[in-house]
C-alpha cells in the first residue's frame, strides 16, 4: 500500500501538529520510511518532529542564481543541494520548501526542483505534506496525486470558512484528490456545523479533536508535540481518526 496525505488549513489551527502525529502513527504502524514535505513557507514541521533543519529548497533556489561552482551544471548543483536539505529522522525523512519566490525569474530553478522532488517522492511509499493555507505552493512544486486531503480548522467560523474555501480551491487545481476530510481541532464542547460546512464535507468526513492543555504545555516548553504521551487526549483522538481514514482507504 502507498499513501499520500496532504494537510491544509489556516495558520494556528494545529495542522502541523496533526501532520507530525500522523508521521508518528505511520511509523508505529510499520508504514515507513515516510517522506515528510514541509511546504509551508513558515516551516516548523521539523520542530514538531524534534529534528533540526539544515536548509530549505528555497535557499537552494536562491543559490542557483549566483553560487553554482564553476564546472558544475545547475541540475547537478540542485540535486546536491536537495540531498543536503534532506533531514534523516527515525523512520522518516524531512525536506522543507521554504519561502516563496522573491523578485526575479525562478522558472529554471522551479522546474529543476519540481523534477527532483517528483523523483525523490517516488522513492517513498508514504508521503505526508504540510501545506501553507492556500495550497498554491503545493500545486506548483509537488506531485499532483493525493490520496487524502486533511483540512484542519479550529471551531471558529473563520477557520471553518477557510477550510471550505481551500477545498473549493483544490477542486479547481490540476490534481487528483481521493478523499477530503475536515478535522476541527481544539474542540471544547459539542458543535453544530454551518450549512456551508455540511455542503462541502459530508458528516462522515468531519472529525473533531478535543482541546488538550498538555498540547499547549509541550508547545510552551519547546517539546516536540509529535512526542505527546499515548494517553493524551489529542493522541487518542488522532489515532482514532487515522484508523478510520486508513480503513476507508483500504476498503476503497
From TrEMBL:
A biological-process GO annotation: negative regulation of cell division
Organism: Desulfosoma caldarium
Residues annotated as transmembrane: none
Gene Ontology MF term list: ATP binding; ATP hydrolysis activity
Span of domain AAA: 9-163
Protein name: CO dehydrogenase maturation factor
Family matches, as InterPro entries: AAA_dom, CooC, P-loop_NTPase, ParA/MinD_ATPase
SUPFAM superfamilies tied to this protein: P-loop containing nucleoside triphosphate hydrolases
GO CC term, one of those recorded: cytoplasmic side of plasma membrane
Amino acid at each position: 500500500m502507498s499513501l499520500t496525505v496532504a494537510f491544509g488549513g489556516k495558520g494556528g489551527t494545529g495542522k502541523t501538529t496533526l501532520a507530525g502525529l500522523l508521521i508518528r502513527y505511520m511509523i508505529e504502524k510499520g508504514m515507513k520510511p515516510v517522506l515528510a514535505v514541509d511546504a509551508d513557507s513558515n516551516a516548523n514541521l521539523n520542530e514538531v518532529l524534534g529534528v533540526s533543519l539544515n536548509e530549505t529548497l528555497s535557499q537552494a533556489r536562491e543559490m542557483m542564481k549566483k553560487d553554482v561552482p564553476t564546472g558544475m551544471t545547475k541540475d547537478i548543483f540542485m540535486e546536491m543541494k536537495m540531498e543536503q536539505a534532506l533531514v534523516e529522522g527515525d523512520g522518516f525523512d524531512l525536506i522543507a520548501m521554504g519561502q516563496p519566490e522573491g523578485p526575479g525569474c525562478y522558472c529554471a530553478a522551479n522546474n529543476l526542483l519540481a523534477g527532483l522532488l517528483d523523483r525523490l517522492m517516488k522513492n517513498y511509499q508514504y508521503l505526508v505534506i504540510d501545506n501553507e493555507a492556500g495550497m498554491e505552493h503545493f500545486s506548483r512544486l509537488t506531485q499532483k496525486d493525493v490520496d487524502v486531503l486533511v483540512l484542519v480548522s479550529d471551531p471558529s467560523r473563520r477557520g471553518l470558512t477557510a477550510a471550505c474555501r481551500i477545498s473549493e480551491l483544490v477542486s479547481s487545481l490540476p490534481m487528483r484528490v481521493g478523499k477530503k476530510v475536515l478535522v476541527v481541532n481544539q474542540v471544547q464542547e459539542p458543535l453544530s456545523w454551518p450549512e456551508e460546512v455540511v455542503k462541502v464535507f459530508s458528516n462522515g468526513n468531519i472529525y473533531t479533536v478535543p482541546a488538550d492543555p498538555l498540547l499547549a504545555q509541550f508547545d510552551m516548553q519547546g517539546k516536540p508535540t509529535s512526542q505527546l504521551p499515548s494517553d493524551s487526549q489529542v493522541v487518542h483522538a488522532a489515532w482514532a481518526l487515522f484508523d478510520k481514514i486508513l480503513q476507508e482507504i483500504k476498503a476503497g
